[in-house]
Amino acid sequence: MQPPVLSRFLAPRLPFFYGWVVLGCVCLAGFARQGPAVAVLSVFVAPMTGEFGWSRTAMGGAVSLGGLLAAILSPLIGPLLDRRGARLVLCTAVLTTGLATMALSLTQSLLMFYLLFCLARMNWAGPFELGLYGALNNWFVARRVRATSIATLAQMSGLVALPFLAQVSMRNGDWRAGWLAVGAMVLIVGFVPCWLLLVRRPEDLGLQPDRMTSTTGQPVAEPRFNRRQATRTQAFWLLSLYTVMVYPVQAGVSLYQAPHLVERGLSPIAAATVISFFSAMSAVASFGIGFLPRHWPVRYGLLLAALLMSAGAFALIGVTSLPTACLAAGTFGLGIGGIMTLLPTAWADYFGRESYGAIRGIALPLQVLAQAAGPLLSGALRDRSGNYVDSLILFGFLAALAAIAALSARAPAIQTPAGAAS
């Protein structure tokens, strides 16, 4: 795919690596990605259910269905990403997400809400996830973790800003204005930079990615696996197993932290304070990881992230005060920030840039389904026992098992050139 005209004009004239321009586009697209995030939807739950009489379960079902559609679609998007690049995938995702969220202002029925929100949520869970990290991993090798940490931080900023934008736009009680504002912001922030400046890979502009070097100063050889080769390695299945174990923990604990803390005797305001601290620690970990020595094996970072999640989940069981709750939630948040930054990096470090989309597209449905399973498990155990203790015990053990999988997930031997993705 031919690079955009503006990128071909700018690349040879810039006094710095063009990959930083790509990172800027990815950050803006990552901000725009949060239009259909659960945090944004939560702002609309009360006014929309109040007007239409829908149940909260009916609205929440759109989140799960959108994730299921992404799990089905991701294996098809991955090879397209490798062939055509992130520009097509991200521009399409931003455009459809922006238009769908704006069209939600016209909602008149639950069916119409499902059609529009599931489309936007499918983009959130599939095309955005593949496109954002596919773009970064094509351009960055030596600074891959740092670039990923910056992009993750940009996505978190969207989680803060877009719910606030929606709430401000609804000051007169008109939730339709809120959806219009969110959709417009998605389009304004995310579409134009990606369309004008995003380039598939540095080789398309006659450039090279920032390569890692050995202690002798020689470039380190990059792995070049295709999909078939990757799925025959132990590392592929261990990373997949790690994903299946940590993402139910991530979703199940995060969603029900606030009601658990209230049940443990904290006030709603104190619980909200803990959630804010949890989010802040996630951001701190995501950003801080980017400054760790690049030559440290990524599996050690995944190991530490899983252990922090396990410790945080167990610690949440016995919280009795605001300080103990902040300590437990903060520990858990550090682990969440770790997996958000390190897992996309691990897939690229282990299997290379050429078939990243095809390989990640096979594993991503496991992540999406695992995220959907966490809240269901937590809710079912809560209904059975009357509290969240059983679910926290389960999630603590799951995260501990994930740590074992991470420790075993050594990088596979570097392959010869993979050729076309298959």
Q: Nutshell version of this structure?
A:
The protein is mainly α and 422 residues long. It has 16 helices and no strands. Helix 2 (19-33) packs parallel to helix 8 (144-169), helix 2 (19-33) runs antiparallel to helix 9 and helix 7 (127-139) packs antiparallel against helix 8.
Strand content: under 5%
The proportion of residues forming helix, as a percent range, comes to over 70%
CATH class (first level) name of the largest domain: Mainly Alpha
What profile does the largest beta sheet have? none
The CATH architecture name of the largest domain reads Up-down Bundle
Quick one: CATH superfamily of the largest domain?
Answer: MFS general substrate transporter like domains
Can you tell me the CATH topology of the largest domain? Growth Hormone, Chain: A
Total number of beta strands: 0
Distance between the termini: 19 Å
What's the SSE blueprint?
Elements: H1 5-10, H2 19-33, H3 38-52, H4 56-84, H5 86-103, H6 110-125, H7 127-139, H8 144-169, H9 175-197, H10 227-231, H11 234-263, H12 268-288, H13 298-317, H14 322-351, H15 356-385, H16 389-408
Helix pairs in contact: 2-7, 2-8, 2-9, 3-8, 4-5, 4-6, 4-7, 4-15, 5-6, 5-7, 5-9, 7-8, 7-15, 8-9, 8-12, 8-14, 11-12, 11-13, 11-14, 11-15, 11-16, 12-14, 13-14, 13-16, 15-16
